[in-house]
Inverse folding.
């Protein structure tokens, strides 16, 4: 009896948490459409004229989707050996917060419209669903490249901050308060906006020397933007290891190699 129950739970875990099987991919596709439908309903509900005309349809549809997400949330808890690992994980909290708003309307009357933004959190669930085996290796490679580059990027950002402080201080003394550069912090704000080539235009140099420095700052900005891209790209060109979407039924750890038989994190045998 226990063996049958265990096999049933393992099968449910494979369908819900993984995307390497036909059933798992089908579940993710259905969940993806449900998430997109719920987001569309949230957006339409915020349009007052549409909500007034189709309020009943939106309300019933939202309850149907909420019921579907509630069942899915319960199944995720049932199918894992350590439910707290999922419940208190990032996606577990997002799943709960995106499901409870409709239930809260029973206890807090008049809060339906104010909880619309909370229901929009369902959009974050798309990132978990989009883990098709074809892309999982690339996404993990990007994360590893960013992690390996964090020291270099940190030094680079520190260098950029120093440049912004120097340019801001120089522009404060050149332009002065009469041209909008009323303080060094405000001038540093201008240098950041200019260096990143955003250019809001709320502060602009008026003197010839100030305009010359602004031109140099913009050119430097274009060069600076390319540096982090080069740092991360160099890390991504290193040898890739293909990973699958298999999730540990015990600790929910992901990122296993195709030939992995046991979890890298807790040692539990994989399905």
């Amino acid at each position: 009896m226990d063996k049958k129950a265990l096999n049933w739970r393992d099968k449910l875990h494979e369908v819900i948490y993984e995307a390497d099987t036909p059933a798992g991919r089908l579940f993710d596709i259905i969940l993806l459409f449900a998430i997109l439908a719920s987001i569309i309903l949230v957006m339409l509900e915020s349009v007052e004229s549409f909500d007034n005309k189709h309020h009943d349809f939106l309300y019933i549809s939202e309850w149907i989707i909420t019921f579907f997400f509630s069942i899915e949330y319960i199944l995720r808890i049932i199918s894992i050996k350590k439910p707290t690992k999922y419940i208190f994980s990032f996606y577990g909290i997002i799943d709960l917060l995106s499901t409870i708003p409709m239930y809260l309307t029973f206890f807090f009357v008049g809060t339906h419209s104010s909880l619309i933004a909370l229901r929009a959190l369902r959009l974050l669930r798309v990132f978990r669903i989009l883990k098709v085996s074809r892309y999982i290796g690339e996404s993990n490679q990007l994360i590893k490249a960013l992690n390996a580059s964090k020291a270099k990027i940190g030094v680079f950002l520190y260098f950029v901050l120093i440049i912004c402080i120097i340019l801001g201080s120089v522009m404060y003394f050149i332009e002065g308060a009469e041209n909008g550069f009323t303080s060094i912090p405000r001038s540093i704000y201008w240098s950041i906006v200019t260096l990143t080539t955003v250019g809001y235009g709320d502060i602009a140099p008026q003197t010839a020397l100030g305009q010359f420095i602004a031109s140099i700052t913009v050119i430097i900005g274009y060069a600076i933007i390319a540096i982090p891209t080069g740092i991360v790209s160099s890390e991504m060109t290193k040898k890739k290891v293909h990973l699958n979407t298999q999730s540990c039924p015990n600790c929910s750890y992901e990122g296993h190699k195709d030939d992995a038989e046991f979890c890298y994190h807790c040692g539990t045998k994989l399905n």
Notes: Residues 48-78 form the longest helix (31 residues).
